[in-house]
From TrEMBL, chain A:
Encoding gene (name): LOC100753857
Hydrolase as UniProt keyword: no
Entries under InterPro entries matching the protein: Glutathione-S-Trfase_C-like (IPR010987), Glutathione-S-Trfase_C_sf (IPR036282), Glutathione_S-Trfase (IPR040079), Glutathione_S-Trfase_N (IPR004045), GST_alpha (IPR003080), GST_C (IPR004046), GST_superfamily (IPR050213), Thioredoxin-like_sf (IPR036249)
Organism listed in the record: Cricetulus griseus
Keyword Repressor (UniProt): no
Reaction(s) catalysed by this chain's protein: RX + glutathione = an S-substituted glutathione + a halide anion + H(+)
Name this polypeptide is given: glutathione transferase
Record-level GO BP terms: glutathione metabolic process; xenobiotic metabolic process
Annotated GST C-terminal domain residues: 85-208
UniProt record similarity statement: Belongs to the GST superfamily. Alpha family.
Enzyme class, spelled out: transferase
Leader peptide range in chain numbering: none
TrEMBL record, chain B:
Record's keyword terms, sorted: Transferase
Record's protein name: Glutathione S-transferase
GO biological process terms held by the UniProt record: glutathione metabolic process; xenobiotic metabolic process
Lineage: Eukaryota, Metazoa, Chordata, Craniata, Vertebrata
GST C-terminal domain: residues covered: 85-207
Pfam families: GST_C, GST_N
EC category name: transferase
Keyword Flavoprotein (UniProt): no
Source organism of the structure: Cricetulus griseus
Record CDD domains: GST_C_Alpha, GST_N_Alpha
Similarity comment: family membership: Belongs to the GST superfamily. Alpha family.
Length: 222, 221
């Protein structure tokens, strides 16, 4: 169990950002090796480090893990952010997967052709305010606790915070009808590890711009 | 903890099939309530039974669980098919997620418009033969054991075997160069619970035919 986890990805949010968030929230320092040129990716493949030829990949505790969920599950378990028993885990998983579905739509926006973007954005906004945010507001309302599951911080609070910030980036009015989500967002943002991660100079990545996409396309050929 | 799990879905493979396989492999009897019309879906939504208004949904141990991975994770944990510790779980998750990525392309095949079917099939064949199956063959070769992780059956073996069958339906010679995958499939298929599930009359669903696709489209449109 040596050293810090090492994250292999390109220098952007993409599918690695949720991992950065979880490690940061857990107070775990990590290193990043950015894939900048096609040769960087080729080398990882040739070295046999990418089970399915893909990133994200995280070196942690002697393992070379790929697949975002495998990585998140391991980190959450290791740092006790995955609930206290199998039933709490079920709720955490159910909530986290809903968040992942909406996040997937948002991730895909950056690679959506310009002529389809408007329709995609409209769909995302519709799902956000009519399906996902109401579901999580309802959870908080039902138990009146400060966290989504088990009355303490778990991974899914962090996943939700990250999502709420992206929703806010897209359209801040989307959060307006959800007072409990807004309160959760404030509360979580003030946790020391999270507060630190939210500050400039942290390893948190900014919104993905055109230039970053173009560079990623060259390396990942999509 | 009363009664059998109840699976809510339409009468087709879709996203529920891996759940059926895992329960069956674990030797767990389950009931199914099939959605047949749009009203059936509406009813479940109006009951507040579907957290994100979607199926699959499984009633199990007093919970109404949605989201396939949440359901599979719970069943795997409960029936001890999720490894013995955190590190085995990491491998099982990594392997299962790879299978899920391939399955995502495979499960859509019946629902893809006719003119796009050939291209999707080509993608399935390419990914199965060149990315996924070699990766799992390599795992088995690496440790020489009978199962993917920890020298005993886990959810990863069950899911992989399901995919081996499903991809072979679409690409009959796909397993030709993967002797260890073939052996794994045979081994897992001969386990009493799986053998039973593979027999006609079980709750295993066939490849979705046009009628099934049409029915599903009506419910979910």
């Amino acid at each position: 169990m040596s050293g810090k986890p090492v994250l292999h990805y390109f220098n952007a949010r993409g599918r690695m950002e949720c991992i950065r968030w979880l490690l940061a929230a857990a107070g775990v320092e990590f290193e990043e090796k950015f894939i900048e040129r096609p040769e960087d990716l080729e080398k990882l493949k040739k070295d046999g480090k990418l089970m399915f030829e893909q990133v994200p990949m995280v070196e942690i505790d002697g393992m070379t893990l790929v697949q975002t969920r495998a990585i998140l599950n391991y980190i959450a378990t290791k740092y006790d952010l995955y609930g206290k028993d199998v039933k709490e885990r079920a709720l955490i998983d159910m909530y986290a997967e809903g968040i992942a579905d909406l996040s997937e739509m948002i991730i895909h926006l950056v690679v959506t052709p310009p002529d389809q973007k408007e329709a995609k954005i409209a769909l995302i906004k519709d799902r956000t305010k009519n399906r996902y945010l109401p579901a999580f507001e309802k959870v908080l309302k039902s138990h009146g606790q400060n966290y989504l599951v088990g009355n303490r911080l778990t991974r899914v609070d962090i996943h939700l915070l990250e999502l709420l910030l992206y929703v806010e980036e897209m359209d801040s009015s989307l959060l307006a009808p959800f007072p409990l989500l807004k309160a959760l967002k404030s509360r979580l943002s003030n946790l020391p590890n999270v507060k630190k991660f939210l500050q400039p100079g942290s390893q948190r990545k900014p919104p993905t711009d055109e230039k970053t996409i173009e560079e990623a396309r060259k390396v990942f050929k999509f | 903890m009363a009664g059998k799990p109840v699976l809510h879905y339409f009468d087709g493979r879709g996203r529920m099939e891996p759940v059926r396989w895992l329960l069956a492999a674990a030797g767990v009897e389950f009931e199914e309530k099939f959605l047949k019309t749009r009203d059936d879906l509406a009813r479940l939504r109006n009951d507040g039974s579907l957290m994100f208004q979607q199926v699959p949904m499984v009633e199990i141990d007093g919970m109404k669980l949605v989201q396939t991975r949440a359901i599979l994770n719970y069943i795997a944990s409960k029936y001890n098919l999720y490894g013995k510790d955190m590190k085995e779980r990491a491998l099982i998750d990594m392997y299962s997620e790879g299978i899920a990525d391939l399955d995502e392309i495979v499960l859509h095949q019946p629902y893809i418009p006719q003119e796009e079917k050939e291209a999707n099939l080509a993608k399935i064949k390419d990914k199965a033969r060149n990315r996924y199956f070699p990766a799992y063959e390599k795992v088995l070769k690496g440790h020489g054991q009978d199962y993917l992780v920890g020298n005993r059956l886990s959810r990863a073996d069950v899911y992989l075997v399901e995919l081996l069958y499903h991809v072979e339906e679409l690409d009959p010679s796909v397993l030709a160069n993967f002797p260890l995958l073939k052996a794994l499939r045979t081994r897992v298929s001969n386990l009493p619970t799986v053998k039973k599930f593979l027999q006609p009359g079980s709750q295993r669903k066939p490849y979705e035919d046009e009628k099934c696709v049409e029915s599903a489209m009506k419910i979910f449109s």
